[in-house]
Amino acid sequence: MIKENISLKQFSHYKIGGPARYFYDAKNREEIKDALVKRRTLNLPLFILGGGTNLLISDEGFSGIVLRPNMDYIKQVDETTLHVGAGTSVHDLLMYLVKNKLSGMEWAGGLPGTVGGAVRGNAGAFGGEIKDVVYHAISIDSDKEEGVFVERDNKECRFGYRTSIFKGEANNEIIIEVTLLLKKGKKEDIEKMIQEKINYRIERHPMDYPNIGSIFKNVDVNLFTREYLEPVKDRIKKDPFPVVPTAVLISLCGLAGAVHGGAMISPKHPNFIINTGNASSRDVEYLIAFIKREVYKKFHVNLEEEIVRVS
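Structure for UDP-N-acetylenolpyruvoylglucosamine reductase, as requested:
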């Protein structure tokens, strides 16, 4: 189950990244425990890989163990409650919800990645967030010798804007299963709303190039002084609180279309940096730093990255 020198590029939506010294594809809880034992034996750093949708993986790769919790299942407990494996893709979950007339995640239409990754980063779009349907989460503490399972309810997950306890004090924990609480709906309505979100992404996002979604979080209006908010006050939206879309700021700085090596700030959606074919992680890093610098010069706000860097 453990492999050596596996290219991470194949697991990245960016198609960027060097090799993992060790790679472990775990399909159940016991295999996760086995991987953690191996990690302690080798005394190496650990990285948890989900769907590879928001990761900027270094060209040098990762010198420790990359563990992919690949538990892919959906179990219906009652009319509106599901147990979902962390490795289940958001797409597969949505197809299940349509088939079984369950509403509550229509906002996620077209969202890539896994359920575990979505919970870790409290994924959201179109005013919805996954925290709105999470009832319970089970994780395993990677730092404990015996592989201790931890159970949390929604409040204990400490969801915030694109974050959760799993990105904070519990970032050593591996999400393995999530309980979702949905509501009954009409199949036609659920399917229509999901397709609307998919169509929006196709129309507005650079889906024809490798990318990892939005590079930066949108900016809380409270971070602007009155002087610098004035030029963008008509672009404020609720997501889920009042923010200025970072794509607007980047566009107003005239950065859309800027290129460095094989990476480009997307003209279609400037909060995406796309791989035009042969981008390196250094190319992307250069553009990230460039955007931060120019946006600060014009608006006096510091952009916060939404992506995760792996090195």
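The two ends are 23 Å apart (CA to CA).
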